[in-house]
Amino acid sequence: MGKLYKFLKYSFITIWTVFVVAPFLWALTTSFKDFNSVNGGATYIPWVDFEPKLEGWKVLIKSPANGGVDIIEPYFNSLFVTCTASLISIVLGTLSAYALSRFTFKAGFVKNNDITFFFISQRIMPPIVLSIPFFLFLGAINLLDSLIGLIVVYIVLLMPIAVWIMVDFFNKVPREIDETALIDGCNPYQAFFKVVLPNSVPGLIVAGMFCIIFGWIDFFFAFILTFTEVQLLPVKIVALNSSITPWWSLSASALVSVAPLIIVAFIVERYLSKGNLSGAIK
Amino acid sequence: MNFKHKYVFLFPGLFVLIGILIFPIIFVVRLSLSGWNSYNGLNFIGLENYVRLFTDDPRFWQSFFRLSFLSVTTVILQYVIGFALAHMVWKDIKFQRFFRVLFLIPMMTTPVIMTVIWRTFFHESLGPVNDILSNFGMSPKWLTDPTLAKITVIIVEVWQWTPFMFLLLLAGLLSLPKEPFLAAAIDGASPIRKFIYVTFPLMAPISIGAIIIRLIEASKIMDTVYVLTSGGPGTSTETSSFYIFIKGLREFQMGYAASMSFTYLIIMIISLTFIAKGLTKLLLKD
Questions:
Q1: B positions 43-102 inside 8 Å of A (CB)
Q2: The pairing of beta strand B41-44 with beta strand B34-37
Q3: Domain A72-281 falls in which CATH fold?
Q4: Which of B5, B7, B8, B9 to mutate to probe the A interface, most A CBs <10 Å?
Q5: What is the mean pLDDT of residues B168-189?
Q6: B38 part of contact set with chain A, CB < 8 Å
Q7: What are the backbone dihedrals phi and psi of residue B155, each rounded to the nearest 5 degrees, phi first?
Q8: Cα distance between residue B181 and residue B188, in whole Å
Q9: What one-character DSSP code corresponds to residue B91?
Q10: CB-based contact (8 Å) between B17 and chain A?
Q11: In this complex, is the C-beta atom of B19 within 8 Å of any C-beta atom belonging to chain A?
Q12: Which of A260, A267, B196, B208 has the most CB atoms around it within 10 Å of its CB?
């Protein structure tokens, strides 16, 4: 049993590792190719199979006037929109989650669980359902094709995630903590900010990372709600995929777009090992 | 504990969400009852759009069944592979952190961007997959054959989102209590029996949560299809979202698209509720 299981386990892990890594390696080699080496058929090893060129990478930082694609501005747009929307979602979501975890609400048949479900259910809404009214709505208030418009839309995408993770997290933070603080003469706000919040840093980090992931990887809303004034990274990169696909710069820009989130992967793994995500998923 | 302060905590988030959403949602419903074009704006036409949808549009229903097939298949695959991987890196493995981080990375990548890479990966004459397969005399048309195109979409989705399943299940495994495992060890249970009688039942509630979350996300599949195949060849990979997108924002039949959106949303909510109930019954027998 032991040996066979071990063999199967390591084979499976190896196969999966190859599967996970393959597209990245492919993108990495492709990013150093040029037109000729791409169209000569699939090749893998630089210097042996093809002569590596830096064209794919150089194009990314050239201005469009010089035939470049300039992904720097979209890159910072993406960072700005993702971080701002995540921050707002976390702040508002955490406050609401705390209320839902600690206090009892009742309005007719609506109770705590229903309010929590209302928040989380926004994730069920397919983007396409919202895209058309958002398109017209943002158009009507002149926020189409603007960073603020996108941030507003992303808050709807991200706040449910923040509430979902934080409600469960607060449920695991012992109530005695805030009760002691209240007995010691804090008002509810002091109890929250000075006592509960410092004890919730791991939850906040996990929620923040999830918001950043789901903000950063969104394409659909950015694609429909922006055109020329504001471009986000995914839209810009996919736009490269036009008549003659420049595989080299496409691959390079894909790698650049993945890079910052690798850090997020490390952070998520760290807090996962400490078991801090466990409450969040039930 | 009960204060009026509690509203100060709850309301900012709640009202921001409602404030952003209320107009769009009312508008979808209103729009779905209208003919809409850029010349004369909204004109009320009652249930005409819905009648057309239910009696005269097989393409919508086909795309819906295709979506169900794709999302159920991918989620099952993701669950099985994700659970296997999570169980394998749970304990007793070298380079544990390395594998955990590595297995998480695909979900951190933007689906559309990676799909563009996958497109070159599966390219019929210039991609590495067919380059390797050509040694065996095969050259499958990954993106232009109706059946293979579906499989390609499934492969890409599994690559992209198995990590999410893996993350949720690993977090679940790490949070399990130790006592049942000790008891099983004392009884001398074999690893397989331990998995069937201890690990799996303990993981059931977490599994249900993870499957439902993934089904919700998988039903939105749209980016991948848009970049990989544009719904093609023909309509063989067209999903509901993509069809609504074509009708609404390509052909500008906004009213009709809104009625499809609304119908689709209702069907999704009902079927997800049923799936959640069914899974709970199936996995939580006691």
A1: 81, 84-85, 88-89, 93, 97, 99-102
A2: antiparallel
A3: MetI-like fold (1.10.3720)
A4: B9
A5: 83
A6: no
A7: -60, -50
A8: 10
A9: S
A10: yes
A11: no
A12: B208
- Indicate the pLDDT class of residue B51, thresholds 50, 70 and 90: confident
Does the distance separating the beta carbons of B16 and A277 come in below 8 Å?
no
Q: Is B266 on the interface with A (CB under 8 A)?
A: no
CB contact under 8 A, B268 and A104: no
pLDDT in tens, A63-121: 666 666 778 888 899 999 999 999 999 999 999 998 888 888 877 777 788 888 888 88
Backbone φ, ψ for residue B40 (5° rounding): -120, 20
Q: Closest chain B residue to A118 measured between Cα atoms?
A: B14
Quick one: which of A91, A169, A88, A97 has its CA closest to B6? A97
For A40-74, write each residue's pLDDT tens digit: 666 777 777 777 777 778 777 776 666 667 788 88
Which chain A residues contact residue B88 at CB under 8 A?
9, 12-13
Strand boundaries in B93-169, DSSP class E: none
The ipTM, to two decimals, is 0.85
Average pLDDT over residues A157-180: 85
pLDDT of residue A220: 84
Residues of chain A with CATH 1.10.3720.10: 72-281
CA angle A149, A154, A160 (to 5 degrees): 145
Q: Which domains does chain B have, with CATH numbers?
A: 61-283 (1.10.3720.10)
Please state, as a whole number, how many other Cβ atoms lie within 10 Å of the Cβ of residue A127. 21
* Whole-angstrom distance, CA of residue A114 vs CA of residue A103: 14
Indicate if the pLDDT at residue B116 is higher than 80.
yes
Residue from A157, A190, A268, A281 to probe the interface with B (highest B Cβ count within 10 Å): A281
Mean pLDDT, chain A, integer: 82
Verify whether the Cβ–Cβ distance B103 to A152 is below 8 Å.
no
> What are the tokens at A20?
């996970």
Q: Which pair of tokens denotes residue A167? A: 């409600």
